[in-house]
Each structure stands twice: as C-alpha cells, then as structure tokens.
Automatic annotation (TrEMBL):
This is Xylose isomerase. The lineage of its organism: Bacteria, Pseudomonadati, Pseudomonadota, Alphaproteobacteria, Hyphomicrobiales. The gene is xylA. Its main location: cytoplasm. Its cofactor is Mg(2+). It comes from the Bacteria. Keywords: Carbohydrate metabolism, Cytoplasm, Isomerase, Magnesium, Metal-binding, Xylose metabolism.
Length: 439
C-alpha cells in the first residue's frame, strides 16, 4: 500500500463559520481563548483507533464494506505497521492532541499471550517513535477483554480462574505500555463483566472478583509509578444482558465496595448513558457530584434504535448541555473528548473519516462556546442558587450538621409553626433561557 491513505487532504485549518468547506473547521479554532483557556486545551480531542482503523464496516447482516488496505494481507505485523502510519496521518490532518487504543486494535493476537503482548510492544515502539515528532499524545490505552471467545463469560468476573489470570496478565502489559507511552489515563471497559442469566451466575462471587481485579490494577499502577487516572466506562448492557458497570451511580457503588472511590474515575460515553435511561449530561453531573468525573467518549445513539450505534455527535444543543456540565465540573484534568464513534457502513471513502471527525470537532467547539456563554452569563446558575437559598440560613444549615436530631428539628417546626409553601420549578423559563444561548 502507499504511504499516504489520504493523499489529497492536507492538515485542516480554521476558516470560520461562513465557509462551507467540509475539509475545514468552522467553529474549532484551537488557539481561541474561552474562559481563560485555549479551545484545544478545553476540548482535548482524541481519535479512537478501534472505530477509525480496525472496524471493517460490518453489521449483523453483512461483513466488511470498507476494504481498508491494511486489513488485507498475510504479514499481520506489517499490516499493523501500515495501520499505524495511516493513524498518524489522520491525527496530523485533524491536528488532534490525543488518540486512544485497545491492545487488539493496534497489533495482531498471537498464538500465546506472550506473543500477543510482544506484538503490542512492537507497535507501541513504533508509536513512541512517531510521537517524538507528532503533537498527538496518548489519552488512554485499554485491554480488549471481550472479543476473543475465551472472554465469552467475562474477564475478571469469569467463573474460570484461568481467565481471571489471563486477563490480569493482559492488563499488566497494556497498563505498562500505556505508562511508557506517557498515556494520561488507563480505561477498563467491562463489556462482558456481567451475566446472561442468573440461573448460571454466582453474582456475589463475581462482584468480589471484580473488586479484587480493580484493586490489582490500582496496586500495579502505583507500583510502576503511573501517574495517570484509572477509568471505568459504564454501560448498562450489550454485549452482556446485564453489566455490572451499568451507569455512573452503579460504578460508584462498586468503587465504594472495593474501597477505590478516591482512586478510580469514570469515562462516560454518551450512547451508553442513553442506553442506561439517562441523558449524557445527567451522567456527567452525577460523576462530578460523586467526585469521579474523568473523561468522555463523545458519540451519540440513534433516537429510534435501542442499541449502541456509536455515531459522531451532530446535535449542538445536546452537546452544549454536556459541555456545560463539564465546565461546571471544572473541565478535564487528565480526561478528554474521545470520539468513540464510527462512520456509517456506507461511508467507505477515506474522506468520510476526516469529515466525520472535523464536523464532530466543530459541533463540540460550538457547544463549548455556548456552554461558556451560559457560565459567563450566570443566569442558569443564579436560578439554581436562588432555588436552594434557604439552605444558607444558619438554622437550616444546622439540620445537616452531625449533631442535629429528629427531636430538635421537630421541636423547631412546632415552635415556628412551619407551613412550607410550594414554589415553581420554572423549568420552561430555564429551557427558554437555554434556547437564548443557542441563538
Ligand atoms: Mn466507548
């Protein structure tokens, strides 16, 4: 194959909102300062290796449509090297600061785990060399503990202890590779950490296995001096019928049970949030409230489909509400905006990959500007502050203090003759206010 997969496309630049060139940015102006920070530093975009370079365009009714040249040949490592060339070519065209990968995305599985791990290291060495001259850094690495049939009953939660051991050894390798590449996070997605039927499942035992596995990962992180964040990516189901990392609230419960609520954060995916029956902004706000907000996978589902369609974001209002919650949470620390999204199966041209990312970056940038307006104007926050203003009164604050009691509160209600009067939640007024920032 040729060295360049996108021969006619050069690095995209900001041309302003008036231009209609699909191979340019109209809102993403990386050096523009928003709330005291460059747009690029706010958004911290990442390209996902899996969807962009490894997924062949199949669906349950038909196979490959993309026919990527690096997916056809006999020398698997040579193909993996060619794929790495294409990946860094796209990173450069998009001018993105980050990328993210699973071990199996970047290198072929060998006959043994040792061979597989060596393949991952070989490609990681190529990444390291490329990263010396590329601006693109590693947002996170992760181990694929779900594709191979050995993981069909789970990884850490498998009834077979040999699979637990195999998974631990695989994670050790990818965590170390992520550390060596300067990765800012390490992600655990438990796609098969769950069950199909309770009839064959010891739920408590599996939760105990999962808790110990998480602790093993955190202990090793500290042992090797990895300063990045360990992230869990919640998802309610698909592939398993029920997943233990159902949503942010459930993950927080798992973390508390494992004693890791101060060690591990969440990587929240928009489509996973909606599959769990939540809005994306709900999951972000919940994670922030619980002190475990880490990073996001920015994609969306299809409103008419009940599965994970992993589409690039196109809805500015929805994205603005998510960005508003990210800004309210103080923005990212080690996290970023990872496009865990894929082009549609019929979008077979190389150009489609570039345009999908560029348009999504624009949606996020525009959403960031709107969210920044909401923050700067302060009217939304003011309405919330006013709604809870009663809690600033010392006698009311005292009810939440450790020395309060039902007796004392009841005595005060009697003494003051309290008779609470309902007040409007003003939802439509606030929704109209949100609409005003979209103008
Ligand atoms: Mn994801």
């Amino acid at each position: 194959m040729t060295a360049r997969f996108f021969p006619s496309i050069s690095k995209l630049t900001y041309t302003g909102p008036e231009s209609r060139d699909p191979l340019a940015f109209h809102w993403y102006d990386k050096d523009r300062v928003v709330l005291g920070k460059r747009m690029e530093d706010h958004l911290r975009f990442a390209v996902a290796y899996w969807h962009s370079f490894t997924w062949p365009g199949g669906d349950p009714f038909g196979g490959e449509t993309f026919l990527r040249p690096w997916m056809h040949g006999t020398d698997e490592l040579a193909l993996a090297r060619a794929k790495a060339d294409v990946a860094f070519e796209l990173f450069d065209i998009l001018d993105v600061p980050f990328f993210a990968f699973h071990d199996r995305d970047i290198a072929p599985e060998g006959k043994t785990l040792a061979e597989s791990n060596a393949n991952v290291r070989a490609i990681a060495d190529i990444f390291a060399k490329k990263m010396e001259t590329s601006k693109t850094k590693l947002l996170w690495g992760t181990a694929n503990l779900f594709s191979n049939r050995r993981f069909m009953s789970g990884a850490a939660t498998n009834p077979d202890p040999d699979v637990f051991a195999y998974s631990a050894a695989q994670v050790k390798n990818v965590l170390e590779v992520t550390h060596e590449l300067g990765g800012e996070n390490y992600v655990l997605w438990g796609g098969r950490e769950g069950y199909e039927t309770l009839l064959n499942t010891d739920l408590k035992r599996e939760l105990d296995q999962m808790a110990r596995f998480l602790n093993l990962v955190v202990e090793h992180k500290h042992k090797i001096g990895f300063k990045g964040t360990i992230l869990i990516e919640p998802k309610p189901q698909e592939p398993t019928k029920h997943q233990y990392d159902f949503d942010v609230g459930t993950v927080y419960g798992l973390l508390c049970r494992a004693g890791l609520e101060k060690e591990v954060k969440v990587n929240i995916e928009a489509n996973h949030a909606t599959l769990a029956g939540h809005s994306f902004e709900h999951e972000i706000a919940m994670a922030a409230a619980l002190g475990i907000f880490g990073s996001i996978d920015m994609n969306k589902g299809d409103a008419q489909s009940g599965w994970d369609t992993d589409q690039f974001p196109t809805n500015v209002e929805d994205t603005a509400l998510a960005m508003y919650e990210i800004l309210r949470a103080g923005g990212y620390t080690t996290g970023g905006t990872n496009f865990d999204a894929k082009v549609r199966r019929q979008s077979i041209e190389p150009e489609d990959l570039v345009i999908a990312h560029a348009a999504a970056m624009d949606v996020c940038a525009r959403a960031l500007l709107i969210a920044a307006d909401m923050i700067e104007d302060g009217a939304l926050q003011k309405a919330v502050d006013e709604r809870y203003a009663g809690w600033e009164v010392p006698a009311n604050k005292a009810m939440l203090a450790a020395d309060s009691s039902l007796e004392a509160i009841a005595a005060r209600v009697a003494a003051e003759g309290l008779d609470p009067q309902p007040r409007s939640g003003r939802q439509e007024r606030l929704e109209a206010l949100v609409g005003s920032y979209l103008r």
